[in-house]
Amino acid sequence: MREYSRLYIDGAWRTPSGQGMAEVIDPASESAIGRVPLGDQADVERAVQAAHRAFGDWSRTPSSVRAGYIRALVEQLRTRAADMADVITAELGMPVQWCRSVQVEGPITGLAQYVELAGLMDRVHEVGNSRVYREAVGVCAFINPWNYPLHQLLGKLAPALAAGCTVVVKPSQETPLHAFLLAEMIDAIGLPPGVFNLVSGPGSKVGEALARHPLVDMVSFTGSTGAGVRVAQAAAPTVKRVCLELGGKSPLLITADADLGAAVRHGVQDVMINSGQTCTALTRMLLPAEHYAEAVEIAAAEARALVMGDPRDPASFLGPMCSAAQRQTVREYIGIGQAEGARLVCGDEPVPERGFYLAPTIFAGVDNRMRIAQEEIFGPVLCLIPYRDENEAIDLANDSPFGLSSAVWAGTSERGLELARRIRAGQCFVNGAGFNYCAPFGGYKQSGNGREWGEEGLGEFVEIKAVQV
């Protein structure tokens, strides 16, 4: 049992003003594995004031010094990577075979690039009689999700520290333990008081107070589109900058000349990693009509072959869903899909009795206008949709309110790249290409605005000043 009774504010562990503690539940065992404080508006006020006081000195600190703190945090995370992975597996339920690489080592790689990128803040661009400077945006509030908790936290924190911003972090109530462990590491590297502050608690109190606070200059939120709209509305009266990484209903377009088996198996695995609780999951598989029946068989066989079980077992491909509530939401969507006339190919296989497990689910005979094809389900559910020609496939890919991610699997990478340019999404993966932490990450349309990671991620935390001389 990991129990934290204090919040991290102004460089020290402080007794919270808020009353009560929240239990953290292991989704595999349904038992409590930790407790964290329930902060309130008074705790938010203390944290924001601390960040506000610290901003002046921190933003004027040489970029090389800020880079040194980032380097020290990278080393802390590398030293304690196994501990961090264990914590995230316990609070989220992602199997260990994925958790260490996806949830911890990847984000550390992303963090490390900002040791060098911090130097971009020193660049001065001259145009005519003007000198154009980059300056830190100010005090930033981070409202983080539960599905990739450290990944999304570091995607915000790394560029913010590099730019010279100070921050207040609110982790998800489902998976807050990783953030407290990270705060221990930040305390160990001696980051100046007030630069990093951590306040846990419900979004209705802590998140809303952060989004509305007049001394918060920017809020970065990752979560559902509906919640993102509410954050933007709360931030609007103070005209603060808002960066939103929201939902997705991403297509995987498989061409007629692609390696069908490899493409379909990749698509199934992509959706089922983290039990479908991935905003970029390729949950709409677009298939040439002439190969549709064969693809359905391949997809069903692959889904049934994936091992579901204890996330601490290295053999498990899928673990449980994060919470009973999320599992219930997905079950309701499965019922909606059946009522809409889609055919359940698999998904009724037995699952462990204890834990929030849900079997990999595949629907065939899906029309792109169905709710299961248009709404983010956020579970291990894949829709197989046929198309007649590639123009229709592109139309189907773009026929979505979302545009976070996408993928193309084609006979050649050159052909895949041509099709990728026609899809309206913030990123596209061609023929199984991997994630790149040096590239910008973010979405089109209702998938949000702004970018994380890479040089573009740094730009979200930068103000531009022109000085005429």
UniProtKB/TrEMBL annotation:
<feature type="active site">
    <location>
        <position position="245"/>
    </location>
</feature>
<dbReference type="InterPro" id="IPR016163">
    <property type="entry name" value="Ald_DH_C"/>
</dbReference>
<dbReference type="Pfam" id="PF00171">
    <property type="entry name" value="Aldedh"/>
</dbReference>
<dbReference type="InterPro" id="IPR029510">
    <property type="entry name" value="Ald_DH_CS_GLU"/>
</dbReference>
<dbReference type="InterPro" id="IPR016162">
    <property type="entry name" value="Ald_DH_N"/>
</dbReference>
<dbReference type="InterPro" id="IPR015590">
    <property type="entry name" value="Aldehyde_DH_dom"/>
</dbReference>
<dbReference type="GO" id="GO:0016620">
    <property type="term" value="F:oxidoreductase activity, acting on the aldehyde or oxo group of donors, NAD or NADP as acceptor"/>
</dbReference>
<comment type="similarity">
    <text>Belongs to the aldehyde dehydrogenase family.</text>
</comment>
<feature type="domain" description="Aldehyde dehydrogenase">
    <location>
        <begin position="13"/>
        <end position="467"/>
    </location>
</feature>
<keyword id="KW-0560">Oxidoreductase</keyword>
<protein>
    <submittedName>
        <fullName>Aldehyde dehydrogenase (NAD+)</fullName>
    </submittedName>
</protein>
<dbReference type="InterPro" id="IPR016161">
    <property type="entry name" value="Ald_DH/histidinol_DH"/>
</dbReference>
